[in-house]
Known about the structure:
119 residues, elongated
Amino acid sequence: MQKLTNKEEEIMHILWKLEKAFVKDVMAAITEDQPHYNTLSTIIRNLEEKGYVSHQAYGNTHQYYPIITKEKYRKAFMNNAIENYFNNSYKSMVSFFAEEEKISAEELREILDIIEKKK
Length: 119
């Protein structure tokens, strides 16, 4: 799965939310740093070339929809982050968030409960 640029990822989040959209619909959903219509159209076509998006043609216009689920992308993204930034160690990842005070002891206990219930 090819890595997405920040803007491509932003567009994918919009398409996952809308499920199907024309370029104008995506444009309307962008709240900050709205690109030019042609630029947005190019970004969406690039997502199609990368295999994230497909389209249904209606004359000269296209309605786009995601063909990669948000869950599949999240899994690939997280696996890549853990491999590249935490040496494939989930323990290192959790320790990082604990040290940065991004996860509480209570949340860690909840995670342990989830793990225990799966055994």
